[in-house]
Design goal:
320 residues, alpha/beta, 10-stranded mixed β-sheet, 21 strands, globular
Length: 320
C-alpha cells in the first residue's frame, strides 16, 4: 500500500512528529514492498536508528530488517551490532561520533543499525554514491526535529509519521501534524533575487540582518537558512510587515503554529522557492507513554486535515 505511493520517487526522507511515531514501521513496510517488487533499495539515517531500545526514552523500538542484496550506509562503529552479513563497498569519508560512514551490501537477511550523515550536503553526496552502486530507490530515515534534512535537494519525497506518542490530546496531535504538512506543501513563490551569500532580501535589495531587511523596500522578504520563532517575534513587534515571507523550502520554517497563525492573521503569507513533495502521512494510534487513540477516528481526523493519503500501516488502511 505505502510502496505504491512512493513509486515515482527515487529518494525519500521519513520524518517523524515525535519519537515512537511509527517512522521505523513505515521504513520496514517500504523495505518489504521493495523486496516484493524486485526494486534495488538503499538505506541510511540522519540520526541513529534500528536499535531495539531507544537510547533516550528507554522505550522499545522496532528493529530494521533488510534482505540480502540491499545497500545500506552506516557508521563503522555500528557494524558489530548488525547481524546481517555485509560486504563493505566503500568508505565515504563522512565521519560521525560512531565512526566513518561505510557503504555496504547485505549478503544475507538480517537486522541492521543505521547512523549516517548529519549535514544536507553529505546526505546529497551519499545518495549519489548509493545510486552509483545500483540503488533504484534511497530511503533516508530522518531524526527527531530534523525535517530540515528532508528538503527537496536531499529528498524528492517526504513521508511524515505521526502518532499517539505525540501527546494524549488527539485533536492537538492531528492539528499539529496538519500544520507541519502545510509547511511542507506551501506554494512556490516567483523568481528569487540573486542573494549572492547574503542572508535576506527585501524586493531586490540585499541585507545581512533581519531588522535591516524589514526597513528596506519591497513587499516580499526573502530569507535563506531557517526562519525561526525568534524571527517571527521580530516581525510581530513591528507595525509594518512584509506582505510575504519566502524561504528556500518548507523545512526551513521552524515556527510554532501559534506564531505562524499570528503572522497570517496580520496579512503575511508564506511561499517557498522549491516545494517539498509530501507523499503521505502515516498514523500510529499506539503510544509508548500512555493510552492509545482510537485508530479509525485518528486516521479519519488526520485525513480531514491534510491533502495527501493517510495510511495506517498496522491495519493496512488508507484514507485519501
Amino acid at each position: 500500500m505505502l510502496f505504491e505511493l512512493v513509486a515515482p520517487y527515487t529518494t525519500l526522507c521519513l520524518a517523524g512528529m515525535c519519537k515512537n511515531a511509527g517512522k521505523t514501521t513505515a521504513l520496514n513496510a517500504l523495505i518489504r514492498g521493495a523486496r516484493a517488487r524486485g526494486v534495488s533499495l538503499a538505506l541510511t539515517s540522519i540520526g541513529r536508528d534500528g536499535e531495539r531500545e531507544d537510547l533516550v526514552t528507554g522505550t522499545n523500538k522496532p528493529p530494521i530488517y533488510l534482505t540480502g542484496g540491499t545497500l545500506f550506509a552506516t557508521a563503522r562503529g555500528l557494524l558489530p551490532k548488525c547481524d546481517a552479513t555485509g560486504e563493505i563497498l566503500d568508505m565515504t569519508g563522512i565521519h560521525t561520533p560512531l565512526g566513518e560512514v561505510a557503504i555496504l551490501r547485505a549478503l544475507s537477511d538480517g537486522f541492521v543499525e543505521l547512523a549516517g550523515p548529519s549535514m544536507r550536503d553529505q546526505i546529497v553526496s551519499l545518495t549519489e554514491q548509493l545510486k552509483g552502486f545500483g540503488a533504484q530507490k534511497v530511503l533516508i530515515d530522518g531524526a527527531l526535529f530534523r525535517r530540515s534534512l528532508c528538503d527537496p535537494e536531499a529528498a524528492e519525497g517526504v513521508i511524515l509519521s505521526t502518532g499517539a506518542s505525540y501527546g494524549p490530546d488527539m485533536e492537538r496531535t492531528a492539528a499539529d501534524t496538519a500544520f507541519v504538512a502545510q509547511l511542507l506543501t506551501l506554494p512556490e513563490s516567483g523568481p528569487w533575487p540573486q542573494l549572492a551569500g547574503r542572508r535576506f532580501a527585501r524586493g531586490e535589495a540585499l541585507f545581512d540582518e533581519l531588522t535591516e531587511a524589514l526597513a528596506g523596500p519591497g513587499d516580499i522578504l526573502y530569507a535563506t537558512g531557517a526562519f525561526t520563532d525568534a524571527m517571527a517575534l521580530t516581525l510581530l513587534r513591528r507595525k509594518a510587515l512584509p506582505k510575504q515571507v519566502a524561504v528556500e523550502d518548507g523545512t526551513r520554517l521552524l515556527l510554532s503554529r501559534e506564531n505562524y497563525e499570528k503572522l497570517r492573521a496580520r496579512g503575511v503569507s508564506f511561499r517557498v522557492r522549491r516545494q517539498n513533495a509530501l507523499v503521505a502521512v502515516t498514523v500510529n494510534p499506539f503510544s509508548a507513554y500512555g493510552a492509545p487513540y482510537d485508530a479509525a477516528a485518528f486516521q479519519e481526523l488526520v485525513a480531514r486535515k491534510v491533502d495527501v493519503p493517510v495510511v495506517n500501516i498496522w491495519e493496512e488502511t488508507q484514507w485519501n
